[in-house]
Amino acid sequence: MKVLLVEGYQEMSKVAAQLFAQEVRSKADLVLGLATGGTPVGMYAELIRMHQEEGLDFSQATSFNLDEYVGLSSEHPQSYRMYMQENFFGQVNIDPRKTHIPRGDVQDLGAECSRYEQSIVAAGGIDIQVLGIGNNGHIGFNEPGSAPDTRTRVVQLTMSTIEANARYFEAVDEVPTQAISMGIQTIMSAKKIVLLASGVAKAEAVRNMLEGEVTPAVPASLLRSHPDVTVVVDEQAASQLS
Ligand code: F6R
């Protein structure tokens, strides 16, 4: 694992956007693995700037998001489809038909998960995956205890994750309790991974990921057996590292 220590959120976002832009420039039909949440908003903003001012071209790219809440339609303001539309897709020239996010509002969730996995394989696999990290060490919505061989599936969110995500909803009981998430193995199959961590709330998870035991109890620690992971971490998130 390569660790890049940066000052704060702004620098983290710029460094991450540079890493992504480099890949987009070197392979026009890149397959991007994307994340939602607070962490990558600044990276998306920087990629949008690069698109507008430097002509960074996403027209041939394909994307797959990590996860989506179960029970929210694509039009729900807190759905991850809506988040991606507002924070990225709507402001760059990616072809909407090539953007993929699991559908959390379908009858047969199991079939949706299998379909999603197959679409990733059919696209040739993910070239570069961006990840955030949960306060509890989750990646995607692979909560502590997620097995290394998991693929896209329906997962139960922990109370820690529900509480952390309640900031986007009117009340904690409006946060969905389940999600569809790429599994650990799906994530590990990406050719390149960039994990971003900013702020003191992530410090313990970052320490456990980098310096603790490699264990499903800290899903992000499993990334240590991937051959090409870059962790971009700011001073606050790195504050518990020895
Ligand atoms: C988002 C995702 C999650 C978040 C994590 C951190 O698609 O899969 O793993 O990356 O919960 O969230 P933030 O960035 O809001 O702290």
UniProtKB/TrEMBL annotation:
- What keywords is this UniProt entry annotated with? Carbohydrate metabolism, Hydrolase
Any one GO BP annotation for this protein = glucosamine catabolic process
The catalytic residues are D67, N136, H138, E143
- Record's Gene Ontology CC terms? cytoplasm
- Report the pathway entry: Amino-sugar metabolism; N-acetylneuraminate degradation; D-fructose 6-phosphate from N-acetylneuraminate: step 5/5
Q: Which reaction does it catalyse?
A: alpha-D-glucosamine 6-phosphate + H2O = beta-D-fructose 6-phosphate + NH4(+)
Which SUPFAM superfamilies does this chain map to? NagB/RpiA/CoA transferase-like (SSF100950)
Coiled-coil ranges (or none): none
Chain ranges of the Glucosamine/galactosamine-6-phosphate isomerase domain: 11-226
User: Which EC numbers does the record give?
Assistant: 3.5.99.6
Q: What would be an example GO MF term here? A: identical protein binding
Under Pfam families, the record lists: Glucosamine_iso
Its function, per the record, reads: Catalyzes the reversible isomerization-deamination of glucosamine 6-phosphate (GlcN6P) to form fructose 6-phosphate (Fru6P) and ammonium ion.
**What NCBIfam families does this protein map onto?**
nagB (TIGR00502), PRK00443.1-4 (NF001684)
Family designation: Belongs to the glucosamine/galactosamine-6-phosphate isomerase family. NagB subfamily.
Q: Which HAMAP family does this chain map to? A: GlcN6P_deamin
Q: What is this protein called?
A: Glucosamine-6-phosphate deaminase
Biological source species? Brevibacillus invocatus
